[in-house]
Write a structure and sequence with these properties.
The protein has 141 residues and is mainly beta. Helix content is 12%, strand content 49%. The radius of gyration is 17 Å and the shape is globular.
């Protein structure tokens, strides 16, 4: 009985800890239809946050290339591509890195912050954060 209790307690604690972090799998939703168009995994490497596209829901776009990207990303597959790079923790947000919009191939400065345990706010901007766009990702269940 104790073994079951401790196992359940461990599961509850690990679930609640995971729900309070930016790391994990997130759903990006189309702004017009609110349907999930991709799944993004946010992960930590050497103390910085990164994210890559791990799933594209549209079967016709799964082999899509980033033809509007420049540099090393030009004509590389969007699936598996890192779109968020080098964010450092700063209080309750992660900032100082960049985000790529594979639809237009442009990179923006950005910061991300948990809006709540299942909603991640992503703010991409040029110059100052006031001149940008906010998107939300939703934790994949």
């Amino acid at each position: 009985m104790k073994k079951i209790f401790y196992t359940l307690l461990l599961i509850i604690i690990s679930t609640s800890i995971n729900a309070q972090t930016i790391f994990g799998k997130w759903e990006n939703r189309d702004e017009e239809t609110n349907k999930v168009d991709s799944v993004i995994e946010v992960y930590q490497k050497e103390g910085k946050a990164y994210a890559k596209i791990i799933e594209i829901t549209d079967k016709n776009r799964q082999d899509a290339l980033c033809d509007k990207c420049s540099g090393k990303r030009k004509n590389n597959p969007i699936l598996g591509m890192n779109i968020l790079t080098g964010l450092k923790k700063d209080g309750d947000e992660w900032s100082g890195g960049k985000i790529l919009d594979p639809k237009n191939g442009k990179e923006y400065k950005c910061y991300i912050k948990l809006d709540n345990s299942n909603k991640l706010k992503i703010r991409g901007y040029i110059g100052f954060a006031a001149f940008g766009r906010t998107a939300y990702w939703y934790r994949k269940k």
